[in-house]
Amino acid sequence: MRAVVQRVKRAAVRVNEALVGEIGHGLLVFLGVGEEDGESDLAWIVEKTAGLRIFEDEKGKMNLSVEDVGGKILLVSQFTLYGDCRKGKRPSFSSAAPPAKAKDLFDQAVLAVKARGIQVETGIFQADMAVELLNDGPVTLLLDSEKKF
Question: Does residue 149 fall inside a structural domain?
């Protein structure tokens, strides 16, 4: 499972110009599900994302998590995180999970984050989405449950 995590001042996602998810201070998380991903990958991504100490404390050091600061998470499914661009110029998405599996694990991720007491907003699975954000820092991190990076 892969995630691009961005610390944001605000973020929103629209489908057909209609607002479907919006947060203020928190994290915008693009989540990709791989064909081999399972429960352990899901647990790792949720734990790592919720616990990342990337918000500043009173001394200006990145020492607090989204949970610590009462932030929110905008979770957006993005299969293109499994795009393989090593050969040619057209990405291959063969290692991305099939839609049914990806939706199931994405929905489980939403529930797992909510179970931690973090407010979650989402996009719409498989929709053509427009995502707006005001990156804070900027702080952008890449996560991979297989620890490839």
Answer: no
